[in-house]
């Protein structure tokens, strides 16, 4: 069975914080509330959009509401690729993995439509055999079923897979699915989230690290 590398999106493939930050601050301004610093936004990313909006509203003493979530999702889906770019070295790493016979997939807590638009706008979509978004299945990371369902969509199983992510959710989903994980040290998660997983400091290290896990 062909080997497959499954990537997280935000903070792993793409530096998406600028557009998440801009959309969130537009929502807050529309609600008459103060915006956030970039570090605050990065600290709220990882558990999907519902959690992001919940954390943002809670930080301003407001209850969660569905209308704010819907406003954010539609604004962000439109504007996800304004400033967001692949991390330096990611396109080359994907090309090198594909050339070495790896199939590639994306497992992200970002909503599927926004993730799809973003990958297309950045010219990355062609690399991926499957995408499992935060709303594609009834569950999402850290639930290992999110990773397993993404693999199934690509016609693959966990025994041939490696996961690459920048958040504890990625490490936990991979561990639960029996898939080795590489922690993206260039991403948004603090180093302790690696929890013992090997840490790549730069995307250029990925082809060798991934091959070492599933030779
Ligand atoms: O949308 C999020 O909160 C995180 O998305 P990710 O799973 O691609 O890092
Ligand atoms: Mg991430």
Automatic annotation (TrEMBL):
<dbReference type="InterPro" id="IPR037512">
    <property type="entry name" value="PGPase_prok"/>
</dbReference>
<dbReference type="GO" id="GO:0006281">
    <property type="term" value="P:DNA repair"/>
</dbReference>
<dbReference type="InterPro" id="IPR023198">
    <property type="entry name" value="PGP-like_dom2"/>
</dbReference>
<dbReference type="Pfam" id="PF13419">
    <property type="entry name" value="HAD_2"/>
</dbReference>
<protein>
    <recommendedName>
        <fullName>Phosphoglycolate phosphatase</fullName>
        <ecNumber>3.1.3.18</ecNumber>
    </recommendedName>
</protein>
<dbReference type="InterPro" id="IPR050155">
    <property type="entry name" value="HAD-like_hydrolase_sf"/>
</dbReference>
<dbReference type="GO" id="GO:0046872">
    <property type="term" value="F:metal ion binding"/>
</dbReference>
<dbReference type="InterPro" id="IPR006439">
    <property type="entry name" value="HAD-SF_hydro_IA"/>
</dbReference>
<feature type="binding site">
    <location>
        <position position="10"/>
    </location>
    <ligand>
        <name>Mg(2+)</name>
    </ligand>
</feature>
<dbReference type="GO" id="GO:0005975">
    <property type="term" value="P:carbohydrate metabolic process"/>
</dbReference>
<dbReference type="InterPro" id="IPR041492">
    <property type="entry name" value="HAD_2"/>
</dbReference>
<feature type="binding site">
    <location>
        <position position="8"/>
    </location>
    <ligand>
        <name>Mg(2+)</name>
    </ligand>
</feature>
<dbReference type="GO" id="GO:0005829">
    <property type="term" value="C:cytosol"/>
</dbReference>
<keyword id="KW-0460">Magnesium</keyword>
<comment type="pathway">
    <text>Organic acid metabolism; glycolate biosynthesis; glycolate from 2-phosphoglycolate: step 1/1.</text>
</comment>
<dbReference type="GO" id="GO:0046295">
    <property type="term" value="P:glycolate biosynthetic process"/>
</dbReference>
<comment type="function">
    <text>Specifically catalyzes the dephosphorylation of 2-phosphoglycolate. Is involved in the dissimilation of the intracellular 2-phosphoglycolate formed during the DNA repair of 3'-phosphoglycolate ends, a major class of DNA lesions induced by oxidative stress.</text>
</comment>
<keyword id="KW-0479">Metal-binding</keyword>
<keyword id="KW-0119">Carbohydrate metabolism</keyword>
<feature type="active site" description="Nucleophile">
    <location>
        <position position="8"/>
    </location>
</feature>
<dbReference type="InterPro" id="IPR023214">
    <property type="entry name" value="HAD_sf"/>
</dbReference>
<dbReference type="GO" id="GO:0008967">
    <property type="term" value="F:phosphoglycolate phosphatase activity"/>
</dbReference>
<feature type="binding site">
    <location>
        <position position="166"/>
    </location>
    <ligand>
        <name>Mg(2+)</name>
    </ligand>
</feature>
<keyword id="KW-0378">Hydrolase</keyword>
<dbReference type="InterPro" id="IPR036412">
    <property type="entry name" value="HAD-like_sf"/>
</dbReference>
<comment type="similarity">
    <text>Belongs to the HAD-like hydrolase superfamily. CbbY/CbbZ/Gph/YieH family.</text>
</comment>
